[in-house]
Amino acid sequence: MSDRPPLRVAHVIETLGVGGAERLVADVVRGLDRERFHSRVFPLDGPLDLQSEIESAGTVVDPVQAPPRRQPLACVRGLARKLRRFGPGLVHTHLYYGNVMGRIAARLAGGAPVVTTLHNPDYTFEARPTPLFRLRKLLDRVTGSRNAALVAVSRAVAEDYRRHMGWESIRVVPNGVDLQAFTPGGDDRAAAEWPAGGLRLLSVGRLHPQKGHRVLLDAMAAARQAGAQLSLLVAGEGAERAALEAQAGALGLPGHVRFAGRRDVLPLLAAADVFVFPSLYEAVGIALLEAMACARPVVASRTGGIPEVVEDGVSGILVTPGDALGLARVLAALERDPERRRRLGKAARARAEAFDIRSTVRSLEALYEEVAPG
What we know:
By secondary structure, the protein is of the alpha/beta class. It has helices spanning 20-31, 51-56, 72-86, 96-108, 122-125, 131-144, 155-165, 213-225, 241-250, 265-271, 286-293, 324-335, 338-352, 357-371; strands at residues 7-13, 37-43, 60-61, 90-94, 114-118, 149-152, 170-172, 199-204, 230-235, 257-261, 274-277, 298-301, 317-319. α2 (51-56) links the parallel β2 and β3 (60-61).
C-alpha cells in the first residue's frame, strides 16, 4: 500500500441524465481503485438522474447548477470555485460543454492537467455552416490543444477528431459494460410491456434524429406488410417523441409499437427477442454493449465505431444506415429463424466480454497516473 494520498480526480460532465457518456462516468467512478483515486463528479446542470446511484457507491456529486448554454460565464466561474475547493490533481471532462467549461475552469482553479474523453463523431455529422458553430468548434480546438491527454471511445471517433481538429495524439479506450450486471438469462416477465404478439424487438436510446427511430418505424411497417409478425418497444425519451408517435400512427403501427420512456433496461433485455440499434451515426453505443452482454441478437447500423464491436454475421447483423428496406428484410428473416437468433445471441455475449468495464477502468487508471503531477 502506497504512502501517497489518493489522486483527487474531478469528473466534469454536462448533466447526469441517462445516456452513454453519463453511464460511463458512473461506472468509472464506481470502479476506480479507492486507495489510489478519490473522485468527485461535477455535473454542470440537470437532469441528475444518476446522482443517487453515484453517491450510493461512495462518490460525492457536486452540481454547478448553471446551464452552460444560457449562462456560460456563471457556469465556468461556478465550476472553477468548486474545483478550487476540491483541489484536484487531475480533471477528466466529457461532452462538449463539459469539455470546454472544464478545461477553462481547470486553468482558473490552479492548472490541474486535463484528460478529455471524446464520445461522439460530432464534427462529421453535426457540422453547421453558421458563425456560432464555427466559434463552438474553435473553442473546442483551442481549449483542447492544451490537454494532457485526449481519449476516444472508438477508432472512428479518434479519426473524426484527428480530421477536424488536427489532434494527432488521441488514445482509444473503448467503452465498457458491467458484465456482472448485464448477463444472459433472467426471465421474460417484462414481455407484457410489448404492445402485441410476435417477435419482440427492443430499441434503447434517446429520441433524437441521430438514433434512426424513423428508419426503424419504416422498416417495421415494410416487414409487417411482407407478413412478419413484429412488436416493437422503444425505451428512451427525447424531443422526437411526438413526431415518432405521429409517424407510427400514419404507418398503421400504433398497436405494434410502444414508446415506453426512460426505463430500467435490464428486465426489458431479458424479455426481448432482438435488439435493434438503427443509428444514422454512432461512436459505439453503451446500450448496444449492454444488449450484447445479455446475449441478445443485435441488428445495428454499419457506422462509426459499431463495426469495431459487432462482427457482421457473427456477433450481430450490420445494415446500411438509413436503409429501411434492408433493415426490414433482416428483421423479417430473423423472425423466421430462431436458431440463428440463438447463435447470434451466444456470439454477442462472447464478443461483449472483450469490452468489460473493468478493462476500461484499468486503462484510465494507468492514464491518470501517467499524466498527473508526480
